[in-house]
Amino acid sequence: MTTVNENMEAQHEEPQLSKPSDSKSLVVTTSAFQFLVPNALPTEELTNENQIFDPLSTYLWSEGENEKTLETLGTDEPKDKAPHDRPYWTNKTEYLLAQVGFSVGMITIWRFPYLCFHSGGGSFLFLYILMLFLVGVPLLFLEMAAGQRMRQGSIGVWKAISPWIGGLGYTSFMVCIIVGSYYSVLLAWNLFYLVQSFQSPLPWLSCPTTNNLTVYDPECVRTTPTTYFWYRKVLKATDEIEMGGLPVLHLSVSLFVIWLIICISMTKGLKSTGKMLYVSILLPYIILFCLLIRSLMMKGAGFGLKNLLAAKVSALYSVEVWRQTGSQLFLSLGSGFGSFTAISSYIPQSNDCVTDAYAVAFLNLVASVTVTVFVFATVGNLATKDIELCYMTNIMTLTNMVSAKMLPPEAKPPKNVYQDPSSFYSWWFNSLPEHIKIAILPYLVECDLSDQLNKVMMGPGMAIVAFSNIVTVFSGSTFWAIVTFMFLVNLGLSTMVGIIQGIITPLQDTFSSLREYSKLFPVGVCVSMFLGSLLFVRPSGSYYVNLLDDYWASLALFFIVILESVAMAWIYGARRPVYHAGPPHLPIYRWLWCFLSPFVLLVLFLSTLIHLSLKKITYFAWDSRISNEVTRTYPSWAKVLLIVLILVTILPVPAYFFYIIVRQVSSVTMIHSRTTVIFKPEAKGGSARALPRLQVRQSLKKTNKMDK
């Protein structure tokens, strides 16, 4: 026994450690250490698993004894090194374009203006900006830094940070699959609009005629041609979600073309994708700027902007507004998908990701505000047109009644009212004597500009309706329609490339054999995603898109980003530099990661969960009988479907947690068996196995020497 202990002292340079008095005490120490530091597994076991974890990833950071150790480790290379042949982005510009392209997409266009109008206007903007820089940017920086330091996708990164939450990467992976399936349908809708734009006059400018070619479709007459074209020609929407049907043919073809473009870009690799980004990112911003300038010159744009800037103070105290703001932030920004991590894994570790995070967040905000200003200016013009039509109806009614001597001559509107009803009608009506007002009021239709604006801003699909409407007021409307929907398709494609990158990169890092099929593997992923997306191009498919986008996506993303904050702050250690060559983190980041972000995200998660549990979930549906949108309640099975999807999405986290526990128990059993045999008095030959903690320290020293 003495000889064995002397050999141990000669092998290790840490005489301060107490020697075990017997084999049993060593077994207890080994077992306890394995449970406290699950990453410190025997070297041969790590080799078999093809995964080496950071040995201090489960230490809680503190002000005291671990400070020097953490500072030393902060400059080390991570043990999980990516393959040496891992590709890089050609330059920093292409990398930033990829990040911005993923962040700024159709969800920004699809939901931001609608939520801004219905959630307090200027108050919503204030809350969004506040949450963007206090919660969004720190989490964005976290994902970028983790990806470029670990040089892996989301699955490998969170396994490296701590095996206990290794399932978090799989959850992000599943979110990318589900969101990518219905997000591609948004692109298919816009691609169909783009194809329909190559004709003059545009098909949504007027109502179609019936079979005898002399009478307009009565369903279209009861609404606007633009709304009719959206629901009946593009979506072929049913009146309820329960009504199924086969996938719509023209949308299925558009969806196939979208996935074909994505598949080709993914098989070409980073170099070809980077070149594509110059067009798919820069061109939409140029088009958007031109559309903004043109919309601000339209009549009624000022009225729309007044409603945008009008802040509702009550919205600041509404939990529902905060919930919707947080949901929009993470859906629009893209945190939690794992795509930022995947894209950053192809950039050198010396990259300054702090600046990148602020740049992406700022450009996302600029795009969101720009699109919102454009939409509000446009719908202000549309509302002004509707109110002028209402005024003209009243003017013609009064003129005919005066001619028929049913009203006194004083009730006849003057000529200047005909020329500019929006400017002179209200002034003329208010100047009438009181008895004349009382006489004509029963014959007038109430014309309220705010009500007209509410009708235009009804439904989250109003952004596409607004884009299709604005081209109708331009000279050369066909040209502007082509340009506008090309802008929308380009935005969506760049985001889809980021989502698919969040699927392919983690799988290739986890299963290295897939890298051998660099062409075939992306094709298989895109084909599978295309088949899954066909569910959303059925006549009731748009209602499923709204169901997932409104209720499922936010819960899944809140769950992911909460665990990301906790993992970085309390498991990996907020004081440890998470990116290789940058300066130590500012205290503000540690405070945000440790306290503010988890608290805010937890409140948002619970409020969303309560909203889903206690309140009825509703959707906008088309009612063909009245040719208008109506609010319907989702059936009970839709809520069950949501619960199943939520559970399936978050299941990898507890499943992988229990897998690690089982693995640790089996490892402790093996170590217990080995130490018992070694320390028996009758053991012959060989040297005693080192304590696991000593193994960790030796491996750290070897790593430091190699880095030097």
UniProtKB/TrEMBL annotation:
UniProt keyword list: Membrane, Metal-binding, Sodium, Symport, Transmembrane, Transmembrane helix, Transport
Q: Which organism is it from?
A: Catagonus wagneri
| Gene Ontology MF term list | metal ion binding; symporter activity
Where mainly found?
Answer: membrane
* Lineage of producing organism: Eukaryota, Metazoa, Chordata, Craniata, Vertebrata
Annotated Pfam families = SNF
Question: Matching InterPro entries, A to Z?
Answer: Na/ntran_symport, SNS_sf
The source's superkingdom equals: Eukaryota
The topology of this chain with respect to the membrane is: Multi-pass membrane protein
This protein's GO cellular component annotations are:
plasma membrane
This protein's name: Transporter
